Amino acid sequence: MPDGLEGYKAWLAGAVPLMVAVTAFGSALALGRAVAAAMEATGRQPEAAIKILINMMAGCVLIEALTIYSMIVAFSLAGKI
Amino acid sequence: MAAAETHAAAHATAELPSLFEVVRHLAGSSAFTAWLVQWQHLWFTLAAMLVVMALMYTGTRRQALIPAGMQNGLEVVVDGFAQFVCSILGPQGRQHVPFIGTLFLYILIMNWLGLIPLMRSPTAGAVSSPVGLPIPLTTLPLAVCAVLYVHGASLQASGLKGYLYHFIGSPSHLILWLVSPLIVVIHALGEFSKVFSLSMRLFGNISGEDTLIAVIVKQCVALTNALHWPPVLPLHVPFLLLGLLTGLVQAFVFALLTTIYLALMLPHEESGEHRVAHAG
């Protein structure tokens, strides 16, 4: 187990990439569902494709923002390693 | 350049040098150049404001009834945005279109400024706080402005009593009156989280995009050095196009979220369809 005065750096070096990876994984699942729903809606009504695209973009940006928060924390913690 | 590199390495994020850093490197670091570099995000904000003003000025200089050229393009943008905002807010949204449209154009120009060589996005600038999270320099004031505008518009539209009534959750039943202190706390936390999420989303996306471009440029320089070719291959151009798209989408989402917060806080009008549904 890493311990001592600089032991936290070993924990950080392992935990920070893991944090970003888990957040990206969850976000990828959610984005896949959102885009799949948008594709299905476009298939049902191709004339509304642009409106569906705009709504899908808005939803995707909100989901992606959660991964961005985790990336910001990763950048601020990566400076402490 | 070496100082910027070590500075970037210490913060573990890469950055391409901006115009003022190049000037400081060439002219030597004096008080004037240090001051220029310290406030560089402010200078780029000024540049973005001048670009927006110049765009609007050239478009409205000779207003013809049948628009052509720049006026035509500007009318497409302004009218499209007004239609979009009014589709969310209803006909009363017409008065909020100037603020939200200016927000959109301003953030769009600032995001795209970082893609020009020797320039940097003001929205990607941040100072590190003792808490650990970076404090964005431009997006946090923008988010505060947007949320304050939403609250001000709600105050103006519903009056002080209506605004406070909405803030405690619009209680119509005794139980709702009893839980209203809790709802006040939740509402206040929600407003702070709106400010935080608006600023952090814009900052994270744009600074991440700029960092990506900087890292790719570093790889290109290393690649052409390894191959002993004198010119540097511009292999980062696809990422510049991605940065264009990200800048556009993030500016649009900022304006969209401000519009949605407005729609949530403004009084809901009883439209004709409501009355028909109640009668049926």
Description:
The complex is a heterodimer of chains A (81) and B (280). By secondary structure, chain A is mainly alpha-helical. Chain A has helices at 7-44, 49-78. Chain A starts with 6 loop residues before the first helix and ends with a helix. In chain B, strands 1-2 form a two-stranded antiparallel ribbon. In chain B, a hairpin with a 5-residue loop joins strand 1 and strand 2 (134-136). Chain B is globular and about 80 Å long. Chain B starts with a helix and ends with a helix. Chain A binds chain B through residues 57-58, 61-62, 64-65, 68-69, 71-73, 75-81, and chain B through 10-13, 128, 132-134, 197, 200-201, 203-205, 208, 249-250, 252-253, 256.
What are the salient characteristics of this protein?
heterodimer; A: 81 residues; 84% helix; rod-shaped; B: 280 residues; mainly alpha; 11 helices; 72% helix; 2% strand; disordered C terminus
